[in-house]
Amino acid sequence: MSTERLDKALSRLIEEGSMSSEQGALLRQAYLEGDGRSESRVSVFAEIAIYLGGTFVLFATTLIAGDKWQQSPLVIRTGLLVALAIGLATLALFLGDKSAMRLRLTSVLSMGSAIAATGAVAIAIKVDGAPWLPFSVGTAIALFFFIRHQHEILHIGTYGYLFITGLLILGAITSTEPEDSIVYAFYWIVLASIWLYLSLTKMIDALLGYLISTATFFLAIQFLFISDNRLISYLVSIAAAIALGWIFLQERRWPLMLGVVLITTFTVGEFVGSTLGGSIGALLGLFAA
Predict the structure, then answer these.
(1) Angle between helix 152-174 and helix 100-125 axes, rounded to 10 deg
(2) Which of 98, 125, 161, 244 has the smallest C-beta neighbourhood within 10 Å, fewest atoms?
(3) Does the model's pTM come out above 0.70?
(4) Distance between CA 63 and CA 57 in Å, rounded?
């Protein structure tokens, strides 16, 4: 039944005195809510069908063209990936974010476009060292769509691109291994601080942003400790724990508290183990026994 026919039927019943206007309004609202749930279920099933169909096509294409892909000329492989990247990006722009299903599809297509563009540049230029240029192209595409559409898929994908691309660029500039330079951990700290600020100002999803920034802080601190930059790791731990704890008092988000607990617990244990040779822990164990 269409809403127009429903409205006419309700108006006639109200005029006849069979029901009150309040009852008619409640009935109309219940009908619309039920219709919305039906459409929502149809949308979910349609989205599942799209994902399954895309996975099947990708798997079949990989099996059929796997051997021929390696034998194809460089121009053909690059051109196909460029066309795929452009096609996925165009489709993502067309879908937009008018509904939750469209937003999810747009996010998946956007990340697919970024990955295809990364592969196209990597094949075209054949970089001998760190492939920072291909990943920079992928990062630019992912960041563009993330700014346009705030979604968890794009959030995680964009941060992953920024995380990896920064390491590759630093490796190309410094020509040093991560364990031989503090600059890598410094980059992680800067990236985590930026993400923490964006989450605090609600420019990105706060819960996921806090979780990502907290995990990055913890990773950077552990990296500093393992690479024998222990004093710096202690200072960063104190600063990060204070910052996360203060924000937690303002917003009560569980990733912040989890970060404070993990950072302080590991840092205190590492400090005791490295400065006192574990004597305090051994003494406590002796008392416990």
Answers:
(1) 20
(2) 98
(3) yes
(4) 10
